[in-house]
Amino acid sequence: IGAGWVLLLAVIIQAGCGHPSQSVLDPAGPAGRSQLGLIYLSTGIMTLVVIVVAAIYIYVVYRFRERPGEEEIPEQVEGSRKLEVLWTVIPIILLVILAVPTISATFTLNKKPEPEQSMRVNVVGFQYWWGFEYPDLGVQTANEVHIPTGTQVDFQMTSGDVIHAFWAPSLGGKQDLNPGIQNRLVLEADRPGVYEGRCTELCGASHALMNFRVIAHPPEEFEEWVASMRNPSSQPQTPLASEGKKLVSQNCIGCHAIDGAGFEIKGRTGPNLTAFGKRTRIAGVWENNKENLEAWLKDPQVVKPGNRMPAFDHLSKKEISALVEYLSDLK
Ligand code: CUA
Q1: pLDDT digits over 106-140, tens only?
Q2: One biological process GO term for this chain (predicted)?
C-alpha cells in the first residue's frame, strides 16, 4: 500500500513537469502505451485496496470504540477461518490480475522483432555517455540516436564499464546495460519528435547527467540523415578550421573518431564525433553552441564531474577557438 502512494505521488510529480517528450503519461509508441496501461491498472488496484482498508479501519475504530461506563476489557476473539481465507484469497486474485499483463508486457518488450520489419541499433553505455551503432547502415553516433517513425527499433545493449540503464520514458523501457551481456529493448515511435532519455542505474558521479536523446524522423527524413552520416562533411571550410583539424589530430583522435575526415586513427574510448555540429547538445547535457563547446574543452569536469575527458587548458585561446570552429563545422 505504501508503494501505491509512492507511485501515485511519482505519477503526479511526472504529470506536473509538463515536458511533452519525457513523460510516461504521454506515450509515443506501443511499448510506452502498454506500460501506461499497466501503470493505470496497478495504480487503480492499489487505490482500491487503500480505500477499502481505510474504510474498514475507520469503521472498526468507530464501531468498537470505548463508550462511557465501559471499563472492563471486551470479550477477546481469536481466529476466524472465514476471514483468514478471505484476506488471503483477495490479495492472491489482485496479484494475479497485476502479474498476468505485467509478465506478458515484459516478454513482448524483449521479443525479437522480424529482421525485415525492424532496424537494429547497438547501444553501449559508458561513464557517462552513450554510443550508438547502426550495424546494417554502417553509421555510428553518440548521445543522440536517430530513428525512423513506424519502425520497430531493436536496441541491443551492453556496457563498456559499469551497469547503466536505458530509459526514454515517452517511448517505453527501461533496460539494464550489463558488461558482457546483451540485453534487448524493442521500441517504436509512432510520431516524429525528440524524446529525452536518461541513465537510470546509479553509475558514478555524473550518473544524473548521463542523458541521451531519441530523435524520431519520418522515414524519408531518416534516410536523409543516414545518407548525411555516411557522407559527412568533415573537411575544414576556413583557415581557422584547418588549424582546428590539425589540433584535433594531435589532441582528440586518440579517443574520438570522426568519419570521413581522413584521420588514420579512430579512437573508441570517447564518443564518435562524426557530424558533431549537427548534435543538439554537447555531452548530452549542454546546448551545442560555440561558447559552451569552448567552456567544455577548457574544463569538461565542471560540466560532467568524473568523466574521462581531460581538460585542454594547456591550449591557447586561439587554439581552442580553432578546435571549436572545426568541430562545429562537422555536419
Ligand atoms: Cu550510467 Cu547512470
Answers
A1: 888 788 888 888 999 999 999 999 999 999 999 99
A2: ATP synthesis coupled electron transport
Ligand 1 atom with minimal separation from the 203 CA? 2
Q: What is the pLDDT of residues 20-72, one digit of tens each?
A: 478 899 999 999 999 999 999 999 999 999 999 999 999 999 998 888 888 88
Domains of the chain (ranges, CATH numbers): 2-66+77-110 (1.10.287.90), 239-329 (2.60.40.420)
Please state whether beta strands 172-177 and 164-168 pair in parallel, antiparallel, or not at all (unpaired). antiparallel
Cβ of 177 less than 6 Å from ligand 1: no
Cα–Cα distance measured from residue 262 to residue 235, given in angstroms and rounded to the nearest whole number: 9
Which atom of ligand 1 is least distant from the CA of 201? 2
Ligand 1 lined by 124 (C-beta under 6 Å) = no
User: Could you tell me the distance, in angstroms and rounded to a whole number, from the CA of residue 207 to the centre of ligand 1?
Assistant: 4
Which one, of 133, 121, 161, lies nearest residue 269 by Cα? 161
Closest CA to 220 of 290, 153, 151, 286: 151
**What angle separates helix 239-251 from helix 317-329, to the nearest 10 degrees?**
100
